[in-house]
């Protein structure tokens, strides 16, 4: 579903170019949940930005659903809206919207009718265990509940690829385990590929496979 080949990324620090990713290659199949691990600064977030079509300035080739990855901002925006879902460490919900409205957002961007958006958002929030919190705003929810809303938002449109950056890092142990179980269940059920950057060994152990980065290179790839 997703193949990336020989990805390189440099940042300019002063007058020098610093290589943050060098010759990184790999692939993700539909319905596969892959952990992206490695020490702080190894390049995980940088790779997620590139594979999430948020950073278009990189070397190498990416193929998504057997097509070349977008190289222009409008094409990248379209791909993100239509095919990708995102989950962040700090949830990034819209604070003035209810849980239900937050989950409706990606469907609104895809042009669904309000009735279809409502039905899908309610079904998805019920699936993540938040049927009683549909009308709550993020501030009234716990961290674990907010992250479950964020997962519902990322997956409600059945995206081909979900990019998750440290989704359990802000959560207590029990909420983290719920989020891990939920991601795994939804990934396998929906057929979305999930790439999750994580320092959490329980998350990595729940994934189908691990890609390990060190100093911007792939150190090893192993079954979890
Ligand atoms: N905008 C930038 N300009 C210059 N250097 C950057 C920039 N963004 C990231 N870097 C550098 O790139 C390297 C990789 O950063 P990245 O955030 O991808 O690592 P990471 O593995 O996600 O780390 P962490 O686990 O701490 O989130 C680091 O050395 C970082 O300082």
TrEMBL record:
SUPFAM superfamilies: P-loop containing nucleoside triphosphate hydrolases (SSF52540)
Pfam families registered for this protein in UniProt: ABC_tran
Classification via SMART domains: AAA
Keyword annotations from UniProtKB, A to Z: ATP-binding, Nucleotide-binding, Transport
MF annotations from Gene Ontology: ATP binding
Keyword Ribonucleoprotein: no
Keyword Cell inner membrane belongs to the record: no
Domain ABC transporter, first and last residues per copy: 2-224
InterPro entries: AAA+_ATPase (IPR003593), ABC_transporter-like_ATP-bd (IPR003439), ABC_transporter-like_CS (IPR017871), ABC_transpr_LolD-like (IPR015854), MacB-like_ATP-bd (IPR017911), P-loop_NTPase (IPR027417)
Family statement drawn from the similarity comment of this UniProt entry: Belongs to the ABC transporter superfamily.
Protein name per UniProt: ABC transporter ATP-binding protein
Organism field: Shewanella electrica
């Amino acid at each position: 579903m997703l193949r990336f080949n020989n990805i390189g990324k440099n940042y300019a620090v002063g007058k020098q170019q610093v290589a943050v990713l060098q010759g990184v290659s790999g692939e993700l199949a539909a319905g596969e949940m892959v952990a992206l691990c490695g020490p702080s600064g190894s390049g995980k977030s940088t790779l997620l930005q590139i594979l999430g079509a948020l950073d278009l300035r990189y070397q190498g080739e990416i193929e998504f659903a057997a097509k070349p990855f977008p190289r222009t901002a409008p094409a990248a925006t379209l791909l993100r809206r239509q095919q990708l879902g995102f989950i962040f460490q700090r949830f990034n919900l819209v604070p003035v919207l209810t849980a239900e409205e937050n989950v409706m957002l990606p469907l609104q961007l895809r042009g669904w009718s309000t009735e279809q958006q409502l039905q899908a958002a309610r079904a998805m929030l019920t699936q993540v265990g938040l049927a009683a919190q549909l009308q709550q705003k993020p501030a009234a929810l716990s961290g674990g509940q907010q992250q479950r809303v964020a997962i519902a938002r990322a997956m409600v449109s059945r995206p081909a690829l979900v990019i998750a950056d440290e989704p359990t890092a802000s959560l207590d142990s029990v909420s983290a385990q719920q989020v891990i179980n939920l991601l795994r269940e939804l990934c396998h059920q929906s057929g979305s590929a999930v790439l999750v950057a994580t320092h959490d060994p329980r998350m990595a152990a729940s994934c189908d496979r691990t890609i390990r980065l060190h100093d911007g290179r792939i150190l090893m790839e192993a079954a979890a």
